[in-house]
Design brief:
By secondary structure, the chain is an alpha+beta fold. Helices cover 27% and strands 34% of the residues. It is built from 2 helices and 6 strands, in the order αβαβββββ. Strand 3 and strand 4 form a beta hairpin. The longest helix has 18 residues. The radius of gyration is 17 Å and the shape is elongated.
Length: 113
């Protein structure tokens, strides 16, 4: 479960920002996670609970914005939604596409005390 290392990395990022702001506690973290980022939100939430103990983020609300995946077909140039990275273009049947949305994995905002 690579979500454990992702949770730990997010906590490190948040702790750095909290230290710069001389914050004692973080109350909320908002993440953007794309549908084809390779991260399972439920697994990340579980890993978060374990990793947050005894840190400035312990007890903080973790909000996850799930970003739907979209691609543009390199053959017909039409945009379409992706269910997974093995989806074919619904317009022309091509498997040649560029993902334009849905790979996100970022800390969008942090609320501190």
């Amino acid at each position: 479960m690579h979500e454990l290392s992702i949770a730990q990395n997010i906590i490190e990022i948040v702790e750095e920002h909290a230290a710069k702001m001389k914050a004692r506690h973080v109350t909320e973290i908002v993440l953007d996670i794309g549908a084809v980022s390779g991260v399972v939100p439920e697994n990340l939430e579980f890993a978060w609970e374990v990793s947050a103990k005894n840190t400035v983020v312990e007890g903080a609300l973790l909000k996850i914005n799930f970003i739907e995946a979209k691609a543009v077909c390199l053959e017909c140039k039409k945009e379409f939604e992706l269910d997974d990275i093995y989806t074919m273009c619904p317009h022309c049947g091509s498997f040649q596409f560029e993902i334009i949305q849905g790979k996100e994995l970022k800390v969008k905002s942090i609320k501190i005390e």
